[in-house]
Amino acid sequence: MIRWMLPVALAMCVAPQALATDIGQIKVSKGSVTIERASQAIPGNLGARVQQGDVVKTGADGSVGITMSDNSLLSAGPNSVLALDQYAFDTTTNQGRFDASLAKGTLAVVSGRLAKQSPGSMTVRTPSAILAVRGTEFVVSADADHAAR
Questions:
Q1: Whole-number pLDDT of residue 7
Q2: What b/e sequence results for 32-57 when a residue is b if at least 16 CB atoms lie within 10 Å of its CB, and e otherwise?
Q3: CA nearest to 103, candidates 55, 64, 62
Q4: Which domain holds residue 125?
Q5: Is the pTM of this model over 0.85?
Q6: CB 112 within 8 A of CB 98
Q7: Contacts of 39 (CB under 8 A, 6+ apart)
Q8: What is the Cα–Cα distance from 133 to 111, expressed in whole angstroms?
Q9: 74: domain CATH number?
């Protein structure tokens, strides 16, 4: 009986990390780009996968393009901090939820199947505003003074 308990106990310890699912992929990466995940900095190289809860940061020379699993396109410019707060997408029904936060920098978005199927299911928070996405394309900027434009 004890022989099977140890592997099960070990699996339970690593299960939350192993259950993390990829929600998108970096398709363009220029200059300094990092992904913060579970208090670790991961290089934001071309092809890197992103997960719910990740924070994507670009340096003064950095920019990043991310394609989400619903085909939403996110582009962050230099000196940006973008948190992928919540993401759920059902590939059968195109239903779900996508919430992101832009602490600073710029973000351009072309919404994918999720926002097209369920207008308002995608939001972007900045230090001074919350945008509910109902269209297909938008650009938002948050500066160091916490003012969204």
A1: 47
A2: bbbbbbeeeebebeeebebebebbbb
A3: 55
A4: 22-142
A5: no
A6: no
A7: none
A8: 8
A9: 2.60.120
- Determine whether 137 is exposed, middle or buried from the number of CB atoms within 10 Å of its CB (0-12, 13-18, 19+): exposed
CB-CB contact of 84 with 51 (8 Å):
yes
92: helix, strand or coil: coil
Looking at residue 135, its amino acid is G
| Structure tokens given for 95 | 């239903």
Task: Write the pLDDT tens digit of every residue in 72-112.
Answer: 999 999 999 999 999 999 989 999 999 999 999 999 999 89
CA distance 129 to 62: 24
For 33-70, how does the pLDDT look when each residue is reduced to its tens digit (9 = 90+)?
A: 999 999 999 999 999 999 999 999 999 999 999 999 99
| Number of independent structural domains in the chain | 1
pLDDT score for 88 = 95
Q: For residues 23 and 123, which has the higher predicted lDDT (pLDDT)?
A: 23
Residue 149 within a domain: no
Q: Which amino acid is at 59?
A: G
